[in-house]
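Hi,

I'm pasting everything inline rather than attaching a file, because the server keeps stripping attachments. The sequence lines come first, and each chain or strand is labelled.
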Amino acid sequence: MSMPAEHPRHKLNELVHSPVRFSIMAALARAESLDFKDLRDAIQVSDSVLSKQLAILEKAEYVKIKKSFAGKMPRTSASLTAAGRAVWSAHLQTLRDIAGG
Amino acid sequence: MSMPAEHPRHKLNELVHSPVRFSIMAALARAESLDFKDLRDAIQVSDSVLSKQLAILEKAEYVKIKKSFAGKMPRTSASLTAAGRAVWSAHLQTLRDIAGG
DNA sequence: AAAGTACTTTCCAAAGTGTCAAGTACTTTC
DNA sequence: GAAAGTACTTGACACTTTGGAAAGTACTTT
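And the predicted assembly:
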């Protein structure tokens, strides 16, 4: 009567799984918010890659982008949304489920 | 004087990181060896996907493929090599390093 | 006026992934 | 013994993703 259990692999969130985005999510998960430059330097990617990947996460509503000014210079900062934190925890749990403990 | 520490993201093994191969490695990490069909059913992929991904892991020498017979029917089984186990542990550690704990 | 800051966007080219169909080499069934 | 099935493997394709390089935007600073 029971369906074969679905392998946890199917629950991996591919938006979160890619190395760069995984690193972005991880960095944001521990900080309230991070500036573009700090994030870029922390995970060591180019401006264009960070900008693009952040846009993908923003569109998915996992990340909130806030634009402001530091004096007269523009400043972009990113933070996880509640949905982003939920997805992040679930993704880590799925990885543990697959890895088996 | 100190170089900025390299982000652990750079140590992710892309051969191991893809969802299907990650699942294969995980499954093999807990079993001494698994038959093609059992592996296919466990991670729920098509024959062709499993065959190809296994070939990639075999070429990298992370997996050993053994062909034998079950009665008169061919049987293919896979197991991790020592290198495969080492790479698997290192990859999990890298994920933890990125996720931070 | 020229150069720099802080990103964003566009234009590629390369690589990865899966599906589907066909191929291989036997074995089993009708 | 011809047809169908088993156990994979391989090849042809279509698609998606990803990153680099370069140009663009909108100001600010020198």
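Chain B touches chain A at residues 4, 6-7, 9-10, 12, 14, 17, 19-20, 22-23, 26, 29-30, 41-44, 92, 95, 98-100 (CB under 8 Å).

If the labels don't parse on your end, tell me and I'll reformat.
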